[in-house]
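#dry-run=false #mode=assembly
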Amino acid sequence: MTDLPKISDKKLGLVIDLDTCVGCHACVISCKGWNTENYGAPLSDMDAYGLAEGTFLNRVHSYEREPEHGAAQLIHFPKSCLHCEDAPCVTVCPTGASYKRAEDGIVLVNEDACMGCGLCAWACPYGARELDPAAGVMKKCTLCVDRIYNENLPEEDREPACVRTCPAGARHFGDLGDETSAVSQLVADRGGLELMPEQGTKPVNRYLPPRPKTETTAVDVLAPFLEVKHAEPEGLLGWVDRMLEKI
Amino acid sequence: MGEPKLNLSPKVSDDVRQTTCYMCACRCGINVHLKDGKVAYIDGNRDHPVNRGVLCAKGSAGIMQHNSPARLRAPLKRVGERGEGKFEEISWQEAYDIAASWLAPLREQAPEKLAFFTGRDQSQSFTSYWAQMFGTPNYAAHGGFCSVNMAAAGIYTLGGAFWEFGQPDWDHTKLFMLFGVAEDHDSNPIKMGIGQLKDRGAKVIGVNPIRTGYNAVADEWVGITPGTDGLFILSLIHCLLKTGQIDLAYLRDFTDAPVLLNNDPESPEYGLFLRDEHGKMLVWDRAQNAPRPFDAPDVSPDLTGTWDVDEVTHHTVFHALVHKYMDADYAPEAVADRVGLSAARIRALAAEIARVAFEEAFELPITWTDFRGRTHDKMQGRPVSFHAMRGISAHANGFQTCRALHVLQMLLGSVEVPGGFRFKPPYPKPATAHPKPHCKITPGAPLDGPHLGFVHGPEDLCLREDGSPARIDKAFTWENPMSAHGLMHMVISNAHAGDPYKIDTLFLYMANMSWNSSMDPGGVMDKLTDRDDTGAYVIPHIIYSDAYSSEMVAYADLVLPDTTYLERHDCISLLDRPICEADAAADAIRWPVVAPDRNVKGFQTALIELGAKLKLPGFVDDAGAALYEDYADYMVHHQRRPGVGPLMGWRGENGDSQGRGDVNENQLARYIENGGFSIAHIPEEARYYKPWNRAYQDWAVEIGLYDAPTPYVFHFWCEPLRKFQRAAEGQEERQPPAHLRDQIKNVMDPLPIWYPTSEASEAFTVHALTQRPMAMYHSWGSQNAWLRQIHGINPLYVPTKLWHAHGFTEGDWARVTSANGDIVVPVAHMAALNEHTVWTWNAIGKRKGAWALDETAPEATKGFLLNHLIHELHPPKDDGLRWSNSDPITGQAAWFDLKVKIERVAPQEIALPVFTPQQAPVDPGPERLAWTVGASK
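#status=ok
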């Protein structure tokens, strides 16, 4: 059993725009690349050129939605640790390996103390943790804690690898504890959502919902553009002839 | 227990080397982070014009490609049967000796007996130069089975195409409509652009039978029936004409709409432009009431009317197009059923496009002067932009469909204007400024000019004196006159058939022709291994170059192992396919950020060494000594025209010239210092209206894109098409064979038309398509331990209606049958899909033994290719002939015309067909990866 830290004001997290995510998996691989080389044990790939089961801290799932009216939709849903305020993965940990940083709220695993029991993964309602079979330790999103404060990186690169790489700009990083931050503003403007709030874990990350899809119909605003002005070619050509005098 | 102490500032790398990605054809700038001399991490170069710091999944996974177990290790000589995969490793010297022993006699006696075709080659200006110096007419890259329709239609119509050769005006467009675009050219720029549009609240409409990727995030999805985009677009045009929503000033000033056409069916010039004695197109001047050159400084062209000139009736191109497209055949009600959209929706979409183009129009306060010498104090914006790729082009009606889209753009006045579609240098460049194809063979000497180009009439076809095709792929013949990229997909079957003639050596680079890059791969394998009566292989020699153990390697007699993209020099050149932006010319290099640890060479360097051994002009000096040490040496020292070489940056002795200038010995060092690229910004007054903008034309001459200003107007009326029609009508000196006359007359209409791409069949009623996944690029990705975990399987996605009709449930399999055979594959349900269409991801299925994959790999058990269902020829028709499964205008392989039937079958262990496993020339991959480099861990 591990205690959660005294709540700090700072809540670092991600805001992921489901309206813009094209499902390209850039974030998945950028994360794999950075985090296999950096924090803790490398992210292994078992049977890498056969059935292949690798450890990832971030995966993109795709779901179809069939609304009552209109065409079916496909939604790309990137998923990683949500750095919950009431993180059950922390409180369940028997060794204290799973912890939430007091200063910024990032949830991490101290791999030296992790015995790979997997309780935290069971406790996480989001399925956001993976036990690395090669290292025998629990792996999860670190929010690139070794990038965001890294003085060996140029300041503009001190953000999570997934955010830096996202081609569509669908991923945003910042302090969700600060109402004035850009990410908080984005959440306010776009109606950012908690994932499964009923679980009571108070996730920090937010998802921006897809904007409503449209289907162009003959609405009023289009009336002037729908009006047939020239039923026959001669009518159009006559109009063009008159118009050319004026332009 | 307190929090552990973390090192929050670990060392990221010992060194960062900036080069150009090659995980797909997008050519992003990358930072390769090295630790202990090994690649530790790759991310995007923030200063790079293509990707501005972002990087896709493929790019970030480059480390796995670079370290792939499938990398070839040394030159290989075949010791078993073709296709078995039994090789012995040999030295480069022996490899060159073998190649030269085949090629040197060919060059002296019959250079056409070498067929040299390249696949995902990014050095076509170099490889084509080599082939030209060798003297064979048989060279092309893979455009014929890729997307030549898009390129050719764009260049003949607008003087530029979609691909990565243009882009929407991301800063100003308010409505962006994509046709047939999955992951394609451009890769990251489109993702970045869509993100930008979403930020601005601009609307995105995706026209595609399949709602994935860009179409999934599009605000509106138009789930069109495959192969009917052209009909849909022509119906939109019909609506715009009937509602009078067109940009008349644009049509008058920047297109051939006012150009006079001979309208006398009895005249030998019927359907051709009226021209003056200098060949200039003439328009009817409203002020002078007489025909005058279209580009006269004070001309006032009329768009409508009929005039007799020298007793022959003429009318304008605009007149012809209005009469054609206002016909009831193109009314929404007439096309609705075929395109799978309601008439009301087609009308509403046309109205929405018009509303944004005209009601949301804006102006930029930029003064500019046009080619007629008129100065304008503003730039008119039309904030509607389009992008399209192979979804519309890989059909047998693709050329005309792509042209139809360009006609729509022109009517709206939304090309090269603020908010519209913009070209990237070296485009705009009209078809007439491109070379024509060349095919004149002189044994022992170079070909008479570049192989590929643009024909302007029957006189430009590549035919021999007896009228038979000059090229092995039959490009630029009556079967497909405008085949600007060649027909790589026909090379092996024609070579096997000895039609139009036999060849001796097939030399391929980076093209997986025995697998995912061919139609009917099983048939191709048979042709590659077939023997004649004497027991000799029908195709006597095959040389193949690849970096990896692809399925094609096993079919080569000689394998030249290429490097990975991090170990090589390359130039992404203005002579070829550069990395320009709409506001800048830009080119780039690759350079060996790490040295190869195997006995491999960059293919271009191997070609230079082989060229020197064969004493090819351009590769040796007068004394026969090699001109270039390697490809890097060529990149710096080769000059295509005086002062113009493969790279535009840091030319001149001191490196202070851009575009034109003498050789600079330090050029590559300067590129490396600058992150691997060079960029030349277009002056503000030259940024739009480029084909007609004097400032742009002058700038383009200054940096060497043209040697003289080349203004032109866009073409609704494609006169070269009309010339082929005339030939089919009995005019013109060169005459098509009788069996092709009707086809040429019918499809080579100078104004875009739509025609069905396959005959109605009761047996095969379901369209079957493929899409490229965003995280994979062709077959390359499957050897990538990280990417293959994203796309290791590819079910056949089945729409709801068919899913229920066939009683499918999760985990089911289906037999999928076409006129060419059947496959048995796993299926999955997908609702966001056109109800008559099934689809799967492209090139996931692998042959056992290839790519260093284990035999249990899902790619080799459940993965499959639709290619087996597609043949390069259609089944025999009533006339007994097997017609080509290609666009009859360009020869573009019509992959997306596939029609199938599906049946539910019991769950299987393995997808069918199964081929015998290949022996691999490489060791199997490691069982476990836990990737980390550097002593710090």
